[in-house]
């Protein structure tokens, strides 16, 4: 049976971001990313710092582990990374979860297509704005959205852009214009992914959230949008595994 | 043309709660409620304290006012109260908004049916738990959910229960069991609807939010659920008109 590089399995907790914000879920975090965003809050998945924690697991191993720690206290699993879309063989795990009546959410930056995208119940595509120092391959992203649309999957898909500065904001507007048929979520960037002073972090994040709201409400070219903070960061700061 | 008792029109801002949390929207708040919840955060809509601010407006008046203050900076309007479901003639406003390609959200406690429920894009039914001191009429609520289901509207509907204490939590579980086909949102109650110390309020709300998450993640009878704070209260405290 083929294996998946897994860095963390934890939960149940709540999803703090995006299209199913607040949803009770388990998390499976895969290792490896084709990007290296300047502000990545999961850099340990690709920068080598946690390479000893990576475990090669079969779909069955992951499902067993999910049940071990989650018991019967979940019906939803979120697969995140890193970029889980690097893993062609993730279909085994997705099938196994669906067979067990588990809903599956997944987040990827939209740099690669996988055929199993059409099985995901809540697919978040999160292209990275200029502040990440990454460059979006729009041919690829166009193709991903086109394929999802052709297969009538857009109701299970959202776009999410993290905003740190004005250039990011303009980038997000471009995404909204380019893919008007896909729900767009704007998320406040966390400037301090290592900060440990949670009260400070919370009040900074809420200030930045308010500023982003102010910007959006004044902008007539950005009406069909949802603006969210990261709830898990407000509650738990930068702690891992919650 | 028939008139609607309106207490506030404001926005654009973001929806801080529930099924379209984060959505850029305008608000229209109608006056009058058939309930008097102990912790009502909009008691001015029914307790007489703002009776001089109530304006009787036609649908045209409301639409004009929305455009005056919102310009072209919105495509979504949220109607809240009080209980807007007291107003049979709200269909005029709803039709006018839809003709202008505006999406319409509405919140009601589920004590009355109106035929125009089937035109609402995001209908939040928020039955009140024991701490409100109100008593849910479950025959009525069953009938509302049944009618929405018959007309194939459940994908536009959610249930939301505000949680202050253990009895409320049990009530919310009962709602989830009774209407498994309707998405359920749990929301942290705001114990201090008059508090003006926003930092204190934020940190209390986040503490209570964390406690509610802890309770939910341990509960195997409450899996299919989303747990949310009130984002507008985190950002703006108890201020009106934001
Ligand atoms: S795509 Fe995601 S996981 Fe990869 S570097 Fe960027 S933020 Fe980190
Ligand atoms: S139903 Fe809503 S508006 Fe009416 S009293 Fe209760 S909380 Fe207030």
UniProtKB/TrEMBL annotation, chains A, B:
<dbReference type="InterPro" id="IPR017742">
    <property type="entry name" value="Deazaguanine_synth"/>
</dbReference>
<protein>
    <recommendedName>
        <fullName>7-carboxy-7-deazaguanine synthase</fullName>
        <ecNumber>4.3.99.3</ecNumber>
    </recommendedName>
</protein>
<feature type="binding site">
    <location>
        <begin position="39"/>
        <end position="41"/>
    </location>
    <ligand>
        <name>S-adenosyl-L-methionine</name>
    </ligand>
</feature>
<comment type="function">
    <text>Catalyzes the complex heterocyclic radical-mediated conversion of 6-carboxy-5,6,7,8-tetrahydropterin (CPH4) to 7-carboxy-7-deazaguanine (CDG), a step common to the biosynthetic pathways of all 7-deazapurine-containing compounds.</text>
</comment>
<keyword id="KW-0004">4Fe-4S</keyword>
<dbReference type="Pfam" id="PF04055">
    <property type="entry name" value="Radical_SAM"/>
</dbReference>
<dbReference type="InterPro" id="IPR024924">
    <property type="entry name" value="7-CO-7-deazaguanine_synth-like"/>
</dbReference>
<dbReference type="InterPro" id="IPR058240">
    <property type="entry name" value="rSAM_sf"/>
</dbReference>
<keyword id="KW-0408">Iron</keyword>
<comment type="subunit">
    <text>Homodimer.</text>
</comment>
<keyword id="KW-0456">Lyase</keyword>
<keyword id="KW-0411">Iron-sulfur</keyword>
<feature type="binding site">
    <location>
        <position position="29"/>
    </location>
    <ligand>
        <name>substrate</name>
    </ligand>
</feature>
<keyword id="KW-0671">Queuosine biosynthesis</keyword>
<feature type="binding site">
    <location>
        <begin position="14"/>
        <end position="16"/>
    </location>
    <ligand>
        <name>substrate</name>
    </ligand>
</feature>
<feature type="binding site">
    <location>
        <begin position="126"/>
        <end position="128"/>
    </location>
    <ligand>
        <name>S-adenosyl-L-methionine</name>
    </ligand>
</feature>
<feature type="binding site">
    <location>
        <position position="42"/>
    </location>
    <ligand>
        <name>Mg(2+)</name>
    </ligand>
</feature>
<dbReference type="InterPro" id="IPR013785">
    <property type="entry name" value="Aldolase_TIM"/>
</dbReference>
<comment type="similarity">
    <text>Belongs to the radical SAM superfamily. 7-carboxy-7-deazaguanine synthase family.</text>
</comment>
<feature type="domain" description="Radical SAM core">
    <location>
        <begin position="20"/>
        <end position="238"/>
    </location>
</feature>
<feature type="binding site">
    <location>
        <position position="40"/>
    </location>
    <ligand>
        <name>[4Fe-4S] cluster</name>
    </ligand>
</feature>
<feature type="binding site">
    <location>
        <position position="33"/>
    </location>
    <ligand>
        <name>[4Fe-4S] cluster</name>
    </ligand>
</feature>
<keyword id="KW-0460">Magnesium</keyword>
<feature type="binding site">
    <location>
        <position position="37"/>
    </location>
    <ligand>
        <name>[4Fe-4S] cluster</name>
    </ligand>
</feature>
<keyword id="KW-0949">S-adenosyl-L-methionine</keyword>
<keyword id="KW-0479">Metal-binding</keyword>
<feature type="binding site">
    <location>
        <position position="80"/>
    </location>
    <ligand>
        <name>substrate</name>
    </ligand>
</feature>
<feature type="binding site">
    <location>
        <position position="82"/>
    </location>
    <ligand>
        <name>S-adenosyl-L-methionine</name>
    </ligand>
</feature>
<comment type="pathway">
    <text>Purine metabolism; 7-cyano-7-deazaguanine biosynthesis.</text>
</comment>
<dbReference type="InterPro" id="IPR007197">
    <property type="entry name" value="rSAM"/>
</dbReference>
<dbReference type="GO" id="GO:0016829">
    <property type="term" value="F:lyase activity"/>
</dbReference>
């Amino acid at each position: 049976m083929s294996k998946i590089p897994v860095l963390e399995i934890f939960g149940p907790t709540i999803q703090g971001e995006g299209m199913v914000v607040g949803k009770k879920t388990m998390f499976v975090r895969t290792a490896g990313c084709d990007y290296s965003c300047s502000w990545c809050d999961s850099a340990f998945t690709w920068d080598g710092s946690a390479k000893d924690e990576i475990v090669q697991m079969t779909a069955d191993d992951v499902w067993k582990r999910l049940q071990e720690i989650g018991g019967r206290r979940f019906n939803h699993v979120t697969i995140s990374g890193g970029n889980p879309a690097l893993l062609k063989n993730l279909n085994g795990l997705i099938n196994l979860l669906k067979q067990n009546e588990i809903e599956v959410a997944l987040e990827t930056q939209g740099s690669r297509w996988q055929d199993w995208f059409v099985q995901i119940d809540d697919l978040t595509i999160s292209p990275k704005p200029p502040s990440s120092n990454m460059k979006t391959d729009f041919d690829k992203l166009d193709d991903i959205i086109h394929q999802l649309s052709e297969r009538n999957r857009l109701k299970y898909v959202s776009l999410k852009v993290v905003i740190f500065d004005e250039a990011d904001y303009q980038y997000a507007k471009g995404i909204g214009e380019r893919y008007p048929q896909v729900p767009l979520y704007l998320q406040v960037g966390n400037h301090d992914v290592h900060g440990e002073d949670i009260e400070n972090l919370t009040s900074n994040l809420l200030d930045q959230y308010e500023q982003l709201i102010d910007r959006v409400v004044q902008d007539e070219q950005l009406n069909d949008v949802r603006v969210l903070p990261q709830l898990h960061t407000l509650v738990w700061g930068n702690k891992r595994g919650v």
